[in-house]
Amino acid sequence: MLRSEEVFAHGGTRLGRLVILRRRWLLWRHAFVLSLSLLAACRIRAGECTANGTQFDRFVVVILENADFEVAMADDYLASLAARPDARLLSDYHGLAHPSQPNYIGQIGGDTFGITDDDPHEIDATNLVDLLDGANITWKAYMEDYPGDCFNGSNAGGLPLFNGALSLYVRQHNPFVSFSNILGSASRCQKIVPGNELDSDISSKSVPQFVYFVPNQIHNGHTTGFGFNVFQATDWLQGWLDPKLNDSAFNNDRTVILVTFDESGVSGSGNHVYAALVGGLLGSPSNCSAKGDPLTCADGSYYTHYSVPKTIEDNWKLGSLGRNDQNASAFKLP
Ligand SMILES: *[C@@H]1O[C@H](CO)[C@@H](O)[C@H](O)[C@H]1NC(C)=O
Ligand SMILES: *[C@@H]1O[C@H](CO)[C@@H](O)[C@H](O)[C@H]1NC(C)=O
Ligand SMILES: *[C@@H]1O[C@H](CO)[C@@H](O)[C@H](O)[C@H]1NC(C)=O
Ligand SMILES: *[C@@H]1O[C@H](CO)[C@@H](O)[C@H](O)[C@H]1NC(C)=O
Ligand SMILES: *[C@@H]1O[C@H](CO)[C@@H](O)[C@H](O)[C@H]1NC(C)=O
Ligand SMILES: *[C@@H]1O[C@H](CO)[C@@H](O)[C@H](O)[C@H]1NC(C)=O
Protein backbone atom coordinates (compact mmCIF):
# COMPACT_ATOMS: atom_id res chain seq x y z
CA MET A 1 0.00 0.00 0.00
CA LEU A 2 1.15 3.50 -0.78
CA ARG A 3 0.83 6.05 1.91
CA SER A 4 -1.29 9.12 1.10
CA GLU A 5 1.64 11.56 1.13
CA GLU A 6 3.32 9.53 -1.62
CA VAL A 7 0.14 9.71 -3.71
CA PHE A 8 0.01 13.42 -3.01
CA ALA A 9 3.65 13.91 -3.96
CA HIS A 10 3.41 12.06 -7.25
CA GLY A 11 -0.31 12.28 -7.95
CA GLY A 12 -0.36 15.29 -10.26
CA THR A 13 2.06 14.16 -12.94
CA ARG A 14 2.20 11.39 -15.52
CA LEU A 15 5.54 10.28 -14.08
CA GLY A 16 3.93 10.15 -10.63
CA ARG A 17 1.14 7.84 -11.89
CA LEU A 18 3.74 5.55 -13.48
CA VAL A 19 5.69 5.41 -10.23
CA ILE A 20 2.52 4.43 -8.37
CA LEU A 21 1.62 1.77 -10.93
CA ARG A 22 5.12 0.32 -10.81
CA ARG A 23 5.10 0.22 -7.01
CA ARG A 24 1.72 -1.52 -7.06
CA TRP A 25 3.02 -4.06 -9.54
CA LEU A 26 6.07 -4.76 -7.34
CA LEU A 27 3.87 -5.19 -4.30
CA TRP A 28 1.54 -7.59 -6.12
CA ARG A 29 4.43 -9.53 -7.58
CA HIS A 30 6.02 -9.82 -4.13
CA ALA A 31 2.77 -11.09 -2.58
CA PHE A 32 2.28 -13.55 -5.42
CA VAL A 33 5.80 -15.01 -5.14
CA LEU A 34 5.45 -15.21 -1.37
CA SER A 35 2.16 -17.11 -1.57
CA LEU A 36 3.62 -19.50 -4.18
CA SER A 37 6.57 -20.28 -1.94
CA LEU A 38 4.25 -20.83 1.04
CA LEU A 39 2.25 -23.31 -1.01
CA ALA A 40 5.39 -25.08 -2.18
CA ALA A 41 7.03 -25.38 1.23
CA CYS A 42 6.34 -28.75 2.69
CA ARG A 43 5.57 -29.04 6.34
CA ILE A 44 8.30 -31.09 8.00
CA ARG A 45 6.29 -31.54 11.15
CA ALA A 46 3.38 -32.98 9.17
CA GLY A 47 5.80 -35.38 7.50
CA GLU A 48 5.07 -34.10 4.01
CA CYS A 49 8.65 -33.49 2.99
CA THR A 50 10.16 -36.20 5.09
CA ALA A 51 11.44 -39.34 3.51
CA ASN A 52 9.56 -42.39 4.66
CA GLY A 53 11.86 -45.08 5.93
CA THR A 54 12.39 -48.30 4.06
CA GLN A 55 11.45 -50.29 7.14
CA PHE A 56 10.67 -47.93 9.99
CA ASP A 57 9.60 -44.32 10.43
CA ARG A 58 10.95 -43.91 13.95
CA PHE A 59 14.10 -45.14 15.67
CA VAL A 60 14.54 -44.68 19.40
CA VAL A 61 17.77 -45.27 21.36
CA VAL A 62 17.69 -45.64 25.16
CA ILE A 63 21.07 -46.14 26.84
CA LEU A 64 21.78 -47.46 30.30
CA GLU A 65 25.23 -47.59 31.91
CA ASN A 66 27.92 -50.08 32.71
CA ALA A 67 26.71 -53.67 32.92
CA ASP A 68 27.97 -56.93 31.52
CA PHE A 69 25.60 -58.84 29.26
CA GLU A 70 25.18 -61.59 31.88
CA VAL A 71 24.42 -59.10 34.65
CA ALA A 72 21.74 -57.42 32.54
CA MET A 73 20.20 -60.77 31.52
CA ALA A 74 19.92 -61.69 35.19
CA ASP A 75 17.60 -58.73 35.64
CA ASP A 76 13.96 -59.79 35.48
CA TYR A 77 12.72 -56.79 33.60
CA LEU A 78 15.47 -56.74 30.95
CA ALA A 79 15.04 -60.48 30.37
CA SER A 80 11.26 -60.09 30.06
CA LEU A 81 11.65 -57.10 27.75
CA ALA A 82 13.71 -59.17 25.32
CA ALA A 83 11.16 -61.99 25.55
CA ARG A 84 8.18 -59.87 24.49
CA PRO A 85 6.49 -60.98 21.27
CA ASP A 86 7.39 -57.59 19.78
CA ALA A 87 11.05 -57.73 20.80
CA ARG A 88 14.30 -59.39 19.85
CA LEU A 89 17.47 -59.83 21.85
CA LEU A 90 20.69 -58.96 20.05
CA SER A 91 22.89 -61.47 21.84
CA ASP A 92 26.27 -60.49 20.36
CA TYR A 93 26.22 -56.69 20.71
CA HIS A 94 29.34 -54.82 21.84
CA GLY A 95 30.36 -51.48 23.26
CA LEU A 96 33.27 -49.73 21.56
CA ALA A 97 35.59 -48.65 24.34
CA HIS A 98 35.95 -47.64 27.97
CA PRO A 99 35.08 -45.34 29.67
CA SER A 100 31.60 -44.13 28.73
CA GLN A 101 32.07 -41.18 26.43
CA PRO A 102 33.50 -42.79 23.28
CA ASN A 103 30.56 -45.21 23.18
CA TYR A 104 28.07 -42.36 22.95
CA ILE A 105 30.23 -40.40 20.50
CA GLY A 106 30.52 -43.48 18.28
CA GLN A 107 26.75 -43.92 18.04
CA ILE A 108 26.28 -40.58 16.34
CA GLY A 109 29.76 -40.03 14.90
CA GLY A 110 30.68 -43.43 13.48
CA ASP A 111 34.04 -43.14 15.25
CA THR A 112 35.44 -42.57 18.72
CA PHE A 113 37.78 -39.90 17.28
CA GLY A 114 40.51 -41.21 19.56
CA ILE A 115 38.62 -40.19 22.70
CA THR A 116 39.52 -42.38 25.67
CA ASP A 117 38.22 -40.28 28.55
CA ASP A 118 35.12 -38.54 29.89
CA ASP A 119 36.50 -34.99 29.53
CA PRO A 120 34.84 -32.30 27.37
CA HIS A 121 35.84 -32.46 23.71
CA GLU A 122 34.98 -30.38 20.69
CA ILE A 123 34.79 -32.53 17.60
CA ASP A 124 34.89 -30.75 14.29
CA ALA A 125 33.43 -33.51 12.13
CA THR A 126 30.25 -34.57 10.41
CA ASN A 127 27.83 -36.73 12.35
CA LEU A 128 24.44 -38.40 12.12
CA VAL A 129 22.65 -35.07 12.55
CA ASP A 130 24.11 -33.85 9.24
CA LEU A 131 22.66 -36.87 7.47
CA LEU A 132 19.28 -36.57 9.22
CA ASP A 133 18.95 -32.82 8.63
CA GLY A 134 19.95 -33.28 5.01
CA ALA A 135 16.90 -35.47 4.51
CA ASN A 136 14.54 -33.56 6.83
CA ILE A 137 14.39 -36.48 9.23
CA THR A 138 13.28 -34.96 12.52
CA TRP A 139 15.35 -35.69 15.64
CA LYS A 140 15.80 -34.71 19.25
CA ALA A 141 18.28 -35.66 21.94
CA TYR A 142 16.44 -36.04 25.24
CA MET A 143 18.74 -35.83 28.26
CA GLU A 144 17.27 -36.21 31.71
CA ASP A 145 18.13 -33.24 33.94
CA TYR A 146 19.77 -31.34 31.07
CA PRO A 147 19.22 -27.62 31.73
CA GLY A 148 18.54 -26.87 28.03
CA ASP A 149 19.56 -23.66 26.24
CA CYS A 150 22.61 -25.26 24.60
CA PHE A 151 24.20 -25.84 28.01
CA ASN A 152 27.72 -27.20 27.48
CA GLY A 153 28.93 -27.53 31.07
CA SER A 154 30.21 -30.80 32.49
CA ASN A 155 27.31 -31.61 34.78
CA ALA A 156 24.05 -30.37 36.24
CA GLY A 157 21.42 -31.36 38.74
CA GLY A 158 21.75 -33.59 41.76
CA LEU A 159 24.19 -32.97 44.56
CA PRO A 160 27.14 -30.64 43.93
CA LEU A 161 29.59 -33.00 45.63
CA PHE A 162 32.68 -34.97 44.68
CA ASN A 163 33.44 -33.00 41.52
CA GLY A 164 30.19 -33.87 39.79
CA ALA A 165 30.14 -37.53 40.82
CA LEU A 166 26.62 -37.13 42.22
CA SER A 167 25.23 -35.03 39.39
CA LEU A 168 22.17 -36.24 37.52
CA TYR A 169 23.18 -34.92 34.08
CA VAL A 170 26.74 -35.41 32.86
CA ARG A 171 28.15 -34.16 29.59
CA GLN A 172 30.04 -37.36 28.75
CA HIS A 173 26.72 -39.10 28.13
CA ASN A 174 25.52 -36.39 25.75
CA PRO A 175 27.46 -36.82 22.51
CA PHE A 176 25.53 -34.03 20.75
CA VAL A 177 27.21 -31.16 22.61
CA SER A 178 30.65 -32.44 21.63
CA PHE A 179 30.18 -31.84 17.91
CA SER A 180 30.96 -28.22 16.98
CA ASN A 181 28.40 -28.18 14.20
CA ILE A 182 25.63 -29.11 16.63
CA LEU A 183 26.58 -27.00 19.65
CA GLY A 184 27.54 -24.13 17.36
CA SER A 185 24.16 -24.07 15.62
CA ALA A 186 21.32 -22.40 17.50
CA SER A 187 18.65 -24.41 15.71
CA ARG A 188 20.45 -27.71 16.24
CA CYS A 189 21.41 -27.35 19.87
CA GLN A 190 17.83 -26.36 20.70
CA LYS A 191 16.98 -29.95 19.82
CA ILE A 192 19.00 -31.16 22.79
CA VAL A 193 16.27 -30.99 25.40
CA PRO A 194 15.47 -32.06 28.97
CA GLY A 195 14.28 -35.67 29.08
CA ASN A 196 10.77 -34.90 30.31
CA GLU A 197 10.06 -33.04 27.08
CA LEU A 198 9.42 -36.44 25.52
CA ASP A 199 6.18 -36.72 27.50
CA SER A 200 4.91 -33.40 26.14
CA ASP A 201 5.99 -34.41 22.62
CA ILE A 202 3.98 -37.61 23.00
CA SER A 203 0.96 -35.63 24.25
CA SER A 204 1.16 -33.28 21.29
CA LYS A 205 1.85 -36.15 18.88
CA SER A 206 5.10 -34.57 17.76
CA VAL A 207 7.66 -37.21 18.67
CA PRO A 208 10.51 -36.91 16.16
CA GLN A 209 11.69 -39.72 13.90
CA PHE A 210 15.02 -40.16 15.64
CA VAL A 211 14.82 -40.11 19.44
CA TYR A 212 18.02 -40.37 21.48
CA PHE A 213 17.13 -40.75 25.15
CA VAL A 214 19.69 -40.63 27.95
CA PRO A 215 18.33 -41.27 31.46
CA ASN A 216 19.93 -39.48 34.39
CA GLN A 217 22.75 -40.96 36.45
CA ILE A 218 20.40 -42.83 38.76
CA HIS A 219 17.91 -44.00 36.15
CA ASN A 220 20.71 -45.29 33.92
CA GLY A 221 22.24 -47.41 36.68
CA HIS A 222 25.49 -45.44 36.74
CA THR A 223 25.50 -44.19 40.27
CA THR A 224 25.83 -47.25 42.42
CA GLY A 225 26.08 -47.40 46.16
CA PHE A 226 23.63 -45.35 48.21
CA GLY A 227 21.12 -48.09 47.33
CA PHE A 228 21.32 -47.43 43.58
CA ASN A 229 22.24 -50.14 41.07
CA VAL A 230 21.35 -51.59 37.70
CA PHE A 231 18.27 -53.34 39.08
CA GLN A 232 16.95 -50.07 40.34
CA ALA A 233 17.59 -48.60 36.90
CA THR A 234 15.39 -51.22 35.35
CA ASP A 235 12.58 -50.38 37.79
CA TRP A 236 12.75 -46.91 36.36
CA LEU A 237 12.94 -48.26 32.80
CA GLN A 238 9.87 -50.42 33.26
CA GLY A 239 7.80 -47.51 34.59
CA TRP A 240 9.06 -45.27 31.80
CA LEU A 241 8.99 -47.62 28.82
CA ASP A 242 5.99 -49.93 29.29
CA PRO A 243 3.30 -47.22 29.05
CA LYS A 244 5.09 -45.71 26.04
CA LEU A 245 5.10 -49.03 24.22
CA ASN A 246 1.30 -48.93 24.44
CA ASP A 247 1.05 -45.36 23.19
CA SER A 248 0.56 -45.01 19.44
CA ALA A 249 2.00 -41.49 19.53
CA PHE A 250 5.33 -43.11 20.45
CA ASN A 251 5.25 -46.68 19.19
CA ASN A 252 3.45 -48.00 16.13
CA ASP A 253 4.06 -50.70 13.55
CA ARG A 254 6.78 -48.54 11.97
CA THR A 255 8.73 -47.98 15.22
CA VAL A 256 11.95 -49.61 16.49
CA ILE A 257 13.33 -48.99 19.97
CA LEU A 258 16.85 -50.06 20.94
CA VAL A 259 17.51 -50.53 24.66
CA THR A 260 21.19 -51.04 25.35
CA PHE A 261 24.12 -50.23 27.64
CA ASP A 262 27.03 -47.96 26.79
CA GLU A 263 29.71 -50.43 27.94
CA SER A 264 30.18 -53.55 29.98
CA GLY A 265 31.17 -53.46 33.62
CA VAL A 266 34.87 -53.36 34.28
CA SER A 267 35.06 -57.12 34.46
CA GLY A 268 33.29 -57.76 31.15
CA SER A 269 35.35 -59.22 28.37
CA GLY A 270 34.90 -58.08 24.78
CA ASN A 271 32.67 -55.22 25.95
CA HIS A 272 29.67 -57.53 25.48
CA VAL A 273 26.50 -55.68 26.47
CA TYR A 274 22.77 -56.27 26.53
CA ALA A 275 20.83 -54.93 23.57
CA ALA A 276 17.19 -55.53 22.70
CA LEU A 277 15.08 -54.23 19.87
CA VAL A 278 11.44 -53.71 20.76
CA GLY A 279 8.56 -51.98 19.05
CA GLY A 280 5.67 -52.40 16.68
CA LEU A 281 7.84 -53.20 13.68
CA LEU A 282 8.92 -56.38 15.44
CA GLY A 283 5.29 -57.29 16.08
CA SER A 284 5.52 -60.68 14.47
CA PRO A 285 9.25 -60.87 14.15
CA SER A 286 10.17 -64.42 13.76
CA ASN A 287 8.96 -67.90 13.67
CA CYS A 288 10.56 -68.66 16.97
CA SER A 289 8.46 -71.19 18.83
CA ALA A 290 10.23 -70.50 22.11
CA LYS A 291 9.38 -66.82 22.24
CA GLY A 292 9.44 -66.93 26.04
CA ASP A 293 13.17 -67.62 25.93
CA PRO A 294 14.95 -64.56 24.55
CA LEU A 295 18.24 -66.38 24.00
CA THR A 296 16.70 -69.08 21.79
CA CYS A 297 15.06 -66.49 19.62
CA ALA A 298 17.90 -63.98 19.64
CA ASP A 299 19.63 -62.48 16.65
CA GLY A 300 23.19 -63.66 17.23
CA SER A 301 24.83 -61.46 14.59
CA TYR A 302 27.82 -59.40 15.65
CA TYR A 303 26.75 -55.80 16.27
CA THR A 304 28.36 -52.75 17.84
CA HIS A 305 27.24 -49.18 18.58
CA TYR A 306 28.27 -48.43 14.98
CA SER A 307 25.31 -50.55 13.90
CA VAL A 308 23.05 -47.74 15.16
CA PRO A 309 24.07 -45.13 12.56
CA LYS A 310 24.34 -47.86 9.92
CA THR A 311 20.75 -49.01 10.50
CA ILE A 312 19.46 -45.43 10.36
CA GLU A 313 21.46 -44.60 7.24
CA ASP A 314 20.21 -47.67 5.39
CA ASN A 315 16.60 -47.15 6.39
CA TRP A 316 16.40 -43.57 5.15
CA LYS A 317 18.99 -43.96 2.36
CA LEU A 318 21.19 -41.29 3.91
CA GLY A 319 24.55 -42.44 2.61
CA SER A 320 27.21 -42.76 5.28
CA LEU A 321 29.67 -40.78 7.34
CA GLY A 322 32.43 -42.81 5.70
CA ARG A 323 33.73 -44.06 9.02
CA ASN A 324 33.03 -47.26 10.92
CA ASP A 325 29.32 -46.82 10.24
CA GLN A 326 30.06 -47.71 6.63
CA ASN A 327 30.98 -51.33 7.20
CA ALA A 328 29.09 -52.03 10.42
CA SER A 329 26.15 -54.43 10.15
CA ALA A 330 22.68 -52.94 10.14
CA PHE A 331 20.20 -54.64 12.48
CA LYS A 332 18.17 -57.32 10.75
CA LEU A 333 14.58 -56.07 10.60
CA PRO A 334 11.80 -56.79 11.11
C1 LIG B 1 5.09 -40.95 3.79
O1 LIG B 1 4.03 -41.76 4.20
C2 LIG B 1 2.88 -41.02 4.59
C3 LIG B 1 1.88 -41.98 5.18
O2 LIG B 1 1.78 -43.13 4.41
C4 LIG B 1 2.35 -40.27 3.38
O3 LIG B 1 1.23 -39.50 3.75
C5 LIG B 1 3.43 -39.33 2.88
O4 LIG B 1 3.01 -38.68 1.71
C6 LIG B 1 4.71 -40.10 2.59
N1 LIG B 1 5.77 -39.15 2.28
C7 LIG B 1 6.50 -39.24 1.19
C8 LIG B 1 7.55 -38.18 1.04
O5 LIG B 1 6.36 -40.12 0.37
C1 LIG C 1 13.43 -30.50 3.18
O1 LIG C 1 12.42 -29.57 3.43
C2 LIG C 1 12.53 -28.38 2.66
C3 LIG C 1 11.39 -27.45 3.05
O2 LIG C 1 11.44 -27.12 4.36
C4 LIG C 1 12.44 -28.71 1.19
O3 LIG C 1 12.65 -27.56 0.46
C5 LIG C 1 13.51 -29.72 0.84
O4 LIG C 1 13.35 -30.13 -0.50
C6 LIG C 1 13.41 -30.94 1.73
N1 LIG C 1 14.53 -31.82 1.47
C7 LIG C 1 14.37 -33.10 1.15
C8 LIG C 1 15.62 -33.87 0.92
O5 LIG C 1 13.27 -33.61 1.08
C1 LIG D 1 31.15 -23.98 26.04
O1 LIG D 1 30.82 -22.95 25.14
C2 LIG D 1 31.60 -21.81 25.29
C3 LIG D 1 31.03 -20.73 24.39
O2 LIG D 1 30.79 -21.22 23.11
C4 LIG D 1 33.05 -22.13 24.95
O3 LIG D 1 33.86 -20.99 25.13
C5 LIG D 1 33.52 -23.23 25.90
O4 LIG D 1 34.81 -23.64 25.53
C6 LIG D 1 32.59 -24.41 25.84
N1 LIG D 1 32.94 -25.33 26.88
C7 LIG D 1 33.06 -26.61 26.66
C8 LIG D 1 33.42 -27.43 27.85
O5 LIG D 1 32.85 -27.10 25.57
C1 LIG E 1 -0.09 -52.36 27.67
O1 LIG E 1 -1.07 -53.06 26.94
C2 LIG E 1 -1.16 -54.42 27.29
C3 LIG E 1 -2.11 -55.10 26.31
O2 LIG E 1 -3.28 -54.37 26.19
C4 LIG E 1 -1.62 -54.54 28.73
O3 LIG E 1 -1.69 -55.89 29.11
C5 LIG E 1 -0.61 -53.82 29.63
O4 LIG E 1 -1.05 -53.81 30.95
C6 LIG E 1 -0.40 -52.40 29.16
N1 LIG E 1 0.72 -51.84 29.91
C7 LIG E 1 0.70 -50.61 30.40
C8 LIG E 1 1.90 -50.20 31.20
O5 LIG E 1 -0.20 -49.84 30.20
C1 LIG F 1 8.86 -71.36 10.57
O1 LIG F 1 8.79 -72.58 11.27
C2 LIG F 1 8.48 -73.68 10.46
C3 LIG F 1 8.29 -74.88 11.35
O2 LIG F 1 9.38 -75.06 12.23
C4 LIG F 1 9.61 -73.87 9.44
O3 LIG F 1 9.32 -74.95 8.58
C5 LIG F 1 9.73 -72.60 8.60
O4 LIG F 1 10.83 -72.71 7.72
C6 LIG F 1 9.94 -71.40 9.49
N1 LIG F 1 9.90 -70.19 8.70
C7 LIG F 1 10.79 -69.21 8.83
C8 LIG F 1 10.60 -68.01 7.95
O5 LIG F 1 11.72 -69.27 9.61
C1 LIG G 1 35.52 -49.90 7.80
O1 LIG G 1 35.53 -48.70 7.05
C2 LIG G 1 36.50 -47.77 7.48
C3 LIG G 1 36.28 -46.49 6.71
O2 LIG G 1 36.05 -46.73 5.35
C4 LIG G 1 37.88 -48.37 7.28
O3 LIG G 1 38.85 -47.47 7.73
C5 LIG G 1 37.98 -49.65 8.09
O4 LIG G 1 39.21 -50.28 7.86
C6 LIG G 1 36.86 -50.60 7.72
N1 LIG G 1 36.89 -51.70 8.66
C7 LIG G 1 36.74 -52.92 8.28
C8 LIG G 1 36.73 -53.94 9.36
O5 LIG G 1 36.55 -53.24 7.11
Mean pLDDT: 86
What radius of gyration results from the CA coordinates? 25 Å
Low confidence ranges: 1-12, 33-39
The proportion of residues forming helix, as a percent range, comes to 25-40%
Give a count of the beta strands, DSSP E runs of length 2 or more: 12
Q: Give the strand order of the largest sheet, numbering strands 1, 2, ... along the chain.
A: 2-11-9-1-8-4-7
How far apart the termini lie comes to 59 Å
Ions and ligands: 2-acetamido-2-deoxy-beta-D-glucopyranose
Oligomer: single chain
Number of helices in the DSSP assignment: 12
N-to-C SSE string, H for helix and E for strand? HHEHHEEHHEEEHHEHEHEEEEHH
* The CATH architecture of the largest domain: 3-Layer(aba) Sandwich
What top-tier CATH class of the largest domain fits best? Alpha Beta
Domains, number: 2
Estimated structural class = alpha/beta
β-strand amount: 5-15%
Sheet with the most strands?
7 strands, mixed
Shape: globular
Query: What is the CATH superfamily classification of the largest domain?
Result: Alkaline Phosphatase, subunit A
CATH T-level topology of the largest domain: Alkaline Phosphatase, subunit A
Describe the structure.
This protein has twelve helices and twelve strands. It has helices at 4-10, 14-40, 69-73, 76-83, 101-109, 128-134, 180-183, 186-189, 197-203, 230-245, 307-316, 324-327; strands at residues 58-64, 87-89, 93-94, 139-143, 155-158, 167-170, 192-194, 210-214, 255-261, 272-273, 275-278, 303-304. The strands form three sheets. Strands 2-11-9-1-8-4-7 form a seven-stranded mixed sheet, with helices on both faces. The radius of gyration is 25 Å and the shape is globular. One 2-acetamido-2-deoxy-beta-D-glucopyranose (NAG) is lined by residues 120, 122, 152.
